[in-house]
Amino acid sequence: MFKKNTGVGPHRDDITFYINGMDASFGSQGQHRSLVLSIKLAEIELMESITNESPILLLDDVMSELDNTRQLKLLETISQSIQTFITTTSLDHLQNLPENLSIFNIQNGQISVN
């Protein structure tokens, strides 16, 4: 009989992450987002070390779930060497951008650079 889904594979693995010795599944939404970002950044480092090429990082509305400290840390980390596109509906989260970052505003089909 066909199940119409895959019963085996990496999506079925159970992996537990810990933050300061505590199961991360009990963390806040910001901690969850930080954990996922940490894994993605580690994945980028691994890809760079294997291929000697840098991938482009795409982040969709990531700032809305991070506190100011985590926002700044993320921006500092990605601005060092990772070409990144961050989408957002509000520029309020991007007030403290490092100088080497650009904002592209798309409104009514027109693109402008701030």
Short descriptors:
alpha+beta, 114 residues, two-stranded parallel sheet, Rossmann fold
Q: Can you give a write-up of this model?
A:
32% of the residues lie in helices and 18% in strands. The protein has helices spanning 29-51, 68-81; strands spanning 18-19, 22-23, 57-60, 84-87, 104-107, 110-113. The protein has two helices and six strands, in the order ββαβαβββ. It is globular and about 50 Å long. The strands form three sheets. It has a two-stranded antiparallel sheet. Strands 3-4 form a two-stranded parallel sheet. It has a single domain (10-113), classed as P-loop containing nucleotide triphosphate hydrolases (Rossmann fold, 3-Layer(aba) Sandwich). The mean pLDDT is 84. By secondary structure, it is α+β, with helices and mostly antiparallel strands.
Spell the H/E element sequence. EEHEHEEE
**Largest β-sheet summary:** 2 strands, antiparallel
CATH architecture: 3-Layer(aba) Sandwich
Inertia-based shape = globular
Average per-residue pLDDT, rounded, comes to 84
Low-confidence sequence ranges: none
As for the number of domains, it is 1
Specify the CATH class. Answer: Alpha Beta
* Percentage of residues in strands: 15-25%
User: How many DSSP helices?
Assistant: 2
Structural class by helix and strand composition: alpha+beta
Helix content: 25-40%
Could you tell me how far the N terminus lies from the C terminus, measured between alpha carbons in angstroms?
A: 58 Å
Described by its quaternary structure, the protein is: single chain
Query: How many beta-strand runs?
Result: 6
CATH superfamily: P-loop containing nucleotide triphosphate hydrolases
CATH topology grouping: Rossmann fold
**Backbone CA Rg:** 18 Å
Widest sheet: strand ordering: 1-2
